[in-house]
């Protein structure tokens, strides 16, 4: 294993030791770091400084994402879509009380990914729900009820697909790092810890978003249609949208 990888691995163990509130876990991580350091003649202070230097180059940020104007119908399902995407991309969210804005917490590249996916998938969701309503297949349920149920199911299916993809990619990354699979898993875990700490220190949210379903009449037929559309949706950048789009025109 290269000295660079070993520094990253030891630094990750040190961060685990310093971030846990469990003294037994902290001791176990410290002992593991010390054993690796001793075996490779790397000073713990050097490993800690190396890790700190890497983290200075990429740290979590907070970014506001505009969902729509106050009073616009359907904003809660738009938020549901963005949050579903964010959860699968290591981004945590706070939601404005009127659903007009989402505050995203994560690494810049991850938030960029969320915005790009949201721009494409929002357009697909709106077009698919419009086509469903125009077809008349939702009757006798009211159009507004059918649309909200359709979009809610679409967003839920997208979230599930992205989460499954994330698990596959991470598992493959650990598998591919044959000589340092444990180290790769540790880096992924370390990222989660750093984001969790940043969110707890930065977020000013006074409650928990209750989701798009609150007070919504249910239409199973519309949800099945939305789920099918979510299964068929493209999870790549949309050619019609050259950049991340923060609101629906």
The helix/strand series, from N terminus to C terminus, equals HHHEHEEHHHH
Unreliable segments (pLDDT under 50, ≥5 consecutive)?
A: 237-249
Terminal Cα span: 52 Å
Radius of gyration: 22 Å
Number of domains: 2
Helix content: 55-70%
Please give the largest β-sheet. Answer: 3 strands, antiparallel
Structure description:
The chain is mostly helical. It folds into two domains: 1-57, no CATH class; 61-170 and 201-232, no CATH class. The protein contains eight helices and three strands. The chain has helices at 3-19, 23-40, 44-57, 75-87, 108-135, 143-176, 181-202, 220-232, and strands at 61-66, 92-95, 101-106. It has a three-stranded antiparallel beta sheet. Strand 2 (92-95) and strand 3 (101-106) form a beta hairpin. The chain is elongated. The protein starts with a helix and ends in a 17-residue tail after the last helix.
């Amino acid at each position: 294993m290269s000295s660079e990888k070993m520094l990253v691995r030891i630094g990750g163990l040190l961060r685990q030791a310093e971030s846990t509130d469990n003294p037994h876990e902290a001791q176990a991580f410290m002992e593991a770091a010390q054993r690796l350091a001793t075996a490779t003649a790397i000073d713990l202070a050097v490993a800690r400084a190396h890790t700190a230097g890497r983290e200075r180059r990429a740290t979590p940020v907070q970014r506001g994402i505009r969902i729509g104007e106050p009073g616009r119908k359907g904003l809660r399902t738009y938020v549901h879509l963005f949050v579903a995407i964010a959860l699968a991309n290591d981004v945590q969210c706070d939601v404005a009380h009127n659903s007009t804005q989402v505050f995203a917490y994560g690494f810049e590249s991850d938030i960029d990914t969320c915005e790009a996916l949201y721009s494409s998938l929002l357009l697909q969701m709106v077009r698919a729900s419009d086509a469903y309503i125009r077809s008349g297949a939702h009757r006798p349920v009211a159009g507004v009820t059918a649309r909200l149920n359709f979009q809610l199911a679409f967003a839920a299916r997208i979230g599930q697909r992205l989460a499954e993809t994330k698990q596959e990619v991470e598992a493959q990354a650990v598998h591919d790092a044959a000589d340092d699979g444990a180290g790769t898993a540790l880096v992924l875990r370390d990222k989660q810890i750093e984001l969790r700490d940043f969110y707890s220190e930065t977020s000013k949210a006074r409650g928990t978003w209750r989701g798009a379903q609150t007070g919504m009449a249910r239409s199973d037929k519309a949800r099945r249609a939305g789920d099918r559309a979510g299964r068929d949706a493209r999870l790549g950048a949309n050619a019609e949208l050259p950049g991340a789009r923060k609101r629906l025109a």
